[in-house]
Amino acid sequence: SRADITYFGAGPALLPTSVLEEASQALLNYKDTGLGIAEHSHRSQYAADIINQAKSDLTTYLDIPEDYEILFMQGGGTGEFSATVYNLVGAWVTRKKAEILKQLGAQSEEEANQEELVTALKKAVDTELKLDYLVTGGWSLKAYQEAGRLLGPEYTNLATDSRTVNEGKFGKIPDESTWKLSKNAAMVYYCDNETVDGVEFPKFPDTLIPDSNGEGPIVVADMSSNILSRRIPVKNFSAIFFGAQKNLGSTGVTVVIIKKSLLPPACPQPSPALMRKLGLPVPPIVFSYETVAKNNSLYNTLSIFDVYIAGQVLKKLLATFPDKVDGQQAVADQKADIIYKALEAHPNVYRIVPDKSVRSRMNICFRVTINNDTDGTEARFLKEATAVGLTGLKGHRSVGGIRASNYNSIPLAGAQKLADFINNFAQA
Ligand code: PMP
């Protein structure tokens, strides 16, 4: 039964049983309306209330400042690899255009000599537009490749690549002093926790911290696999995104936390006509942050059921942890510590894949070798773990090995059970 299983899958992940029990009722008959939550209109007051409550609870839980907007989108983390490119390139063009208009002495775009404006902008695009990527694992690599695919690789800058300092593999983060950041990049993009490679940034990078006036690089982060598990300095980011299916809820909704200064009225996206003149891509409307923001995430039919689940998880987190994300962080750290200590106690059997300095608290990746046999030992490890109810431990197909995804819904007792199994397996 469900109670016998601790599921360590990398996503979709375990959801709290109490949330699912309530959700099963809500699917049948929401608030005694005779209709389920997946059937009610996304234009209903019920839907609006669910969205607004989830936004408010997320804001409370993470202490999101007032000058940020929360968007619920579709398309997953993968959709955001594209959306970030479209929207942040658009924002860069808007900033550049304002600069050029000033140089041309024009009060507005309409007032400027159009040919002069487009020529100057095109020159800026050709010579200055860059998107910086810190590639520290498979997911940031995919995001970097998507930017190259959409824009052309000449606009992307591989500011750092972990594989260059770790024998061609992911598992370390190069020293910040070696990062080659562009001047005024449209964004500096990184993945805070690499789900496949088990690499997590230990903290917000020093070189990207804004100055005392709040001025700094435009930083965008993928937090799909570690959101809600530790405190984040939201004010340092221009945008943060994450799919819901690991630490927040069910698959089908992607959250974007975005600084309002990147949205209208401060920063309207350039017109499609101008983008075409500049040879730059125009975002599909469902990926346009300004369109989604303008419509409180209801430009098109959003899965309100998925927002509802996320909202219930947030409500549970807020009820469990009076000190909000700090409380969850303490538990997440403790769970990771228990599992890593068990692995470290048997160095002749277990090899933790990433470097200690960047080990993920969420995705614990290791290899198991006994008598020089890794493949056979890992197969036995997985089989014996499954037999005692520890499931979902197989590493990602691209890297093999074992991966314990230690997301928020894994209880402390579940992490302890895995640690005990790790100890027993090595001693058998
Ligand atoms: N980023 C990270 C860090 C991920 O772990 C994943 C999925 N596991 C993705 C992006 C892609 O998300 P999706 O499958 O929702 O597109």
Automatic annotation (TrEMBL):
Its cofactor is pyridoxal 5'-phosphate. It comes from the Eukaryota. SUPFAM superfamilies: PLP-dependent transferases (SSF53383). It is an enzyme of class 2 (transferase). Signal peptide: none annotated. GO terms for biological process: L-serine biosynthetic process. It catalyses: 4-(phosphooxy)-L-threonine + 2-oxoglutarate = (R)-3-hydroxy-2-oxo-4-phosphooxybutanoate + L-glutamate; O-phospho-L-serine + 2-oxoglutarate = 3-phosphooxypyruvate + L-glutamate. InterPro entries: Aminotrans_V_dom (IPR000192), Pser_aminoTfrase (IPR022278), PyrdxlP-dep_Trfase (IPR015424), PyrdxlP-dep_Trfase_major (IPR015421), PyrdxlP-dep_Trfase_small (IPR015422). Its EC number is 2.6.1.52. Residues 7-108, 171-407 form the Aminotransferase class V domain. Belongs to the class-V pyridoxal-phosphate-dependent aminotransferase family. SerC subfamily. HAMAP family: SerC_aminotrans_5. This is phosphoserine transaminase.
